[in-house]
Specification:
The protein is mostly helical.
C-alpha cells in the first residue's frame, strides 16, 4: 500500500494547461485564488481580470498558464477527480469484503469533502462545492470531443472505471457496471445541488445524505440482478 501511494500523484492531462501551475509560486496562487473566486462569483462571472487583481498580477501572466477560463475549469475538475481517485485507492485497496468495499467506494465519490492538509494551496471543501455546481460545464461544450481526444477528462473517467470495477467485484453478472458507476458519480453531484437549492424534490437532507441514497439504490439494484 505504501509503495502504491508513493507512486501515485495528482496527474493533470498536459493538454489542459500551457504551463504547469504546480511548477511555480505564481501558478499555485492562480489555482488557490481561482477556487475562491469561482466559488464566490460562479463560473459565468469569473474572469482572468478579476483573478489578476486578486493575485496582483497581469492577466497576461495568467494566460501563460491557461489559454482560457474554460481550460482552467477543466484543470480544477481534473485535479478534483484525481484527488478522489487517490482516496478511492487509499480507502478500498485493502478491503476484501465486496459489499463493504462497494459501500466505501460509493461514499468516497459522493460525500461532502473535508480539507486535505497535504495540498496547502487547494481548498478541497470549496473545490467540492465548485464541482457540485460547475462540473458539467467542463464538458457540456461544443469542443467536448476534441477535449476528450486530448485526454482532458481522463481523471474523471478513471474514477468511474474504478467504481465500475468494484461494482463488478460485488456482482459479476450485472450487465451495466459503467452506466451505474457514472450514474452514481453524476447523480450524487445532482443530489447535493438540489439538496441545497430545490429541497422540495429530494429526500436528501441533513439526516439522509446523497451517499446514503446511492448506497441503498446500488445494493438493491445489484441484489435484484443476482
Amino acid at each position: 500500500m505504501i509503495d502504491l501511494l508513493s507512486t501515485f500523484k495528482i496527474q493533470i492531462p498536459t493538454g489542459v494547461y500551457l504551463k504547469d501551475p504546480e511548477s511555480s509560486a505564481l501558478g499555485k496562487r492562480i489555482i488557490e485564488s481561482s477556487i475562491v473566486l469561482i466559488k464566490e462569483h460562479g463560473f459565468e462571472d469569473f474572469n482572468f481580470k478579476k483573478l489578476g487583481e486578486v493575485i496582483q498580477s497581469n492577466e497576461s501572466s495568467i494566460y501563460r498558464y491557461f489559454e482560457s477560463k474554460h481550460k482552467l475549469l477543466v484543470y480544477l475538475t481534473s485535479w478534483y477527480w484525481s484527488w478522489i481517485e487517490r482516496q478511492l485507492i487509499i480507502e478500498t485497496y485493502s478491503n476484501n469484503n465486496p459489499e463493504d468495499k462497494l459501500k466505501k467506494a460509493i461514499l468516497v465519490v459522493s460525500r461532502t469533502a473535508e480539507q486535505d492538509q497535504q495540498y496547502s494551496h487547494i481548498d478541497e471543501v470549496l473545490l467540492n462545492k465548485i464541482i457540485i455546481h460547475e462540473n458539467s460545464k467542463s464538458y457540456l461544450t461544443k469542443n467536448v470531443d476534441s477535449d476528450n481526444k486530448e485526454g482532458a477528462f481522463m481523471p474523471y473517467k478513471r474514477v468511474i472505471h474504478r467504481l465500475s470495477k468494484i461494482i463488478t467485484e460485488y456482482n459479476a453478472k450485472y450487465a451495466y457496471p459503467l452506466s451505474l458507476a457514472s450514474t452514481i458519480v453524476e447523480g450524487a453531484l445532482h443530489q447535493h445541488f438540489i439538496k441545497d437549492h430545490f429541497i422540495s424534490i429530494t429526500n436528501c437532507d441533513n439526516t439522509h445524505s446523497p451517499s446514503d441514497f446511492y448506497i441503498d439504490l446500488t445494493l438493491k439494484t445489484l441484489v435484484n440482478e443476482n
